[in-house]
């Protein structure tokens, strides 16, 4: 198949919120600096639902969504040296070129090399897409487009992993689990004994709890409006639960009252700007740090009294948990293989690519964490 157009199945999003359509899609061969991957398993992340909803200013239609996956390299374009056909890989929406201003700064995991192209659904080389249906182009998404049996990505967006790792599990290391763990370890740098609050107990929030437990947090307060999330949360390290619906007072007040003035660290893992405010305001005066992980819709803005920051609270954000993707995803896979981090426990459902609309429905039902699709 090397050098040839491949026709395969993919789930195409034609319009916001309209059911995805399984189509025969033509996938062009990889050009210079590109890699064509046979995607074997993909999970769904809340961010896919967000872009599908039409609220993402970078959302373009028609497109192929999906960014939490694992597969095997089918072929590589000119000049690609770090991966070869047959390598087991995880596509990374957050690239790492090791050469740009961002990569060299040592201060961030963001990479500037291909971001302008991935934000507008095209490939850098010729500013076109590699997906089409009968000659009509289909946009890429986040530089990954994993809801397709084959996808073309930039070489700086491919992490080569241990070939003995089970791809049907480690696909989760493409987004949600690293994001939560890294928010705690890299962005907040939670210390032993800390009191932590996690808003939203989906995969990202539970990974925050898991990371906080590993960091030695003394209390991990989980907040969610879905009581179904509470049962499982204990296994991930949550020590106490609060459902804001059970309280009349604002949730930040409830937490401040229960923690002698507030938490050391809080994490917003929902994408709701009023919860972001509550997450900041439940932090302890003088040092409490709140990390925004959730992605909020276009037009939404955060607000608080500046006094909250004047009196020492810190507001931060994180993308992919601050992990450098190509360097650290393989390390996370190794940690999983050594049973040092959970992955299997986040997978509550398994379906096939053909059942993808059902998988999105599940996401909005109580209790679902990750649904992994077999391609
Ligand atoms: P999810 O839908 O599985 O989990 C969200 C949880 O929040 C659910 O359990 C839901 O019941 C709960 N929730 C909703 N509204 C609430 C409220 N008002 N108060 C308390 N709980 C509430 O989502 P996920 O896949 O875990 O992703 C979480 C968020 O993180 C999303 O916004 C996603 O887009 C974002 N995300 C960001 C990054 C990043 O790099 N920054 C990476 C992955 C995901
Ligand atoms: N296009 C969106 C931005 C969405 C966003 O913030 N994405 C996160 C990853 S979410 C994964 O589930 C991210 O990595 N952001 C940094 C970046 O470079 O995109 C919007 O709202 O504009
Ligand atoms: Zn994601």
TrEMBL record:
SUPFAM superfamilies: GroES-like, NAD(P)-binding Rossmann-fold domains
Subcellular location: Cytoplasm
UniProt keywords, alphabetically: Cytoplasm, Metal-binding, NAD, Oxidoreductase, Zinc
Record-annotated Alcohol dehydrogenase-like C-terminal domain positions: 204-332
Pfam families on file: ADH_N (PF08240), ADH_zinc_N (PF00107)
GO cellular component: cytosol
GO biological-process terms attached to the record: formaldehyde catabolic process
Enzyme Commission no: 1.1.1.284
Signal peptide limits: none
Cofactors that this protein relies on: Zn(2+)
Domain named Alcohol dehydrogenase-like N-terminal: residues: 32-161
GO terms for MF: alcohol dehydrogenase (NAD+) activity; S-(hydroxymethyl)glutathione dehydrogenase [NAD(P)+] activity; zinc ion binding
Catalytic reactions on record: a primary alcohol + NAD(+) = an aldehyde + NADH + H(+); a secondary alcohol + NAD(+) = a ketone + NADH + H(+); S-(hydroxymethyl)glutathione + NAD(+) = S-formylglutathione + NADH + H(+); S-(hydroxymethyl)glutathione + NADP(+) = S-formylglutathione + NADPH + H(+)
Subunit relationships: Homodimer.
Protein family according to the UniProt entry: Belongs to the zinc-containing alcohol dehydrogenase family. Class-III subfamily.
Identification of the protein by name: S-(hydroxymethyl)glutathione dehydrogenase
